[in-house]
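Re: weekly structure request thread

Next one in the queue (137 aa):
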Amino acid sequence: MASITALIAKPIAGPKGGRIVTQTSPHVEFLVGKDRIVTVSFYDDALKSTPIANRIVTAIAEAKSGKTRLDFIEKDGALVSGKPLPDGDGYTIVLQVRDSDGARPKNYRIVFHDEVCAECKRAEYACICEGEDAHKH
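Done, posted below.
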C-alpha cells in the first residue's frame, strides 16, 4: 500500500511567489502581499498567465478575530482583494473559485502562516518543501 505522502502531489511553485492551489490547469495562484492584499492569478500548464475570463473569486478568512469575507476585482490581469487579510496568522482561508456566474464553486483551503520557510525561502502558506518534515519548520 502506498504511503499517504506518496499520494500527495509535489507542490507547484507559484510564478509570483504564492501558492498554486490546483494540480491541473487552469492553475490558481494565491498570493498575499506585504500589505496583506490577496492577488489571485491563473496559469496554463506551462505556468503562463491566462485571462481571468468570467471567473469569480471570493475568500473567507477564518481568523481568531472572526470571519472576514474578501471580494475581488480585476487589476492588471489578476484578481485583487478589495481589503487586506485580518491581522495575525495560523488561520484558515477558504478560497472559492467559480468559472462563471452560476457555475459550481471549487473550494480550496489554505492555512495561512506568513513567516518565511528557512528551506525554500517562501512564505509558509506557499512553502514548496516536500517530505515528512515539510511544514514543520
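Helices lie at 4-7. Confidence is low (pLDDT under 50) at residues 1-7.
Next request, please.
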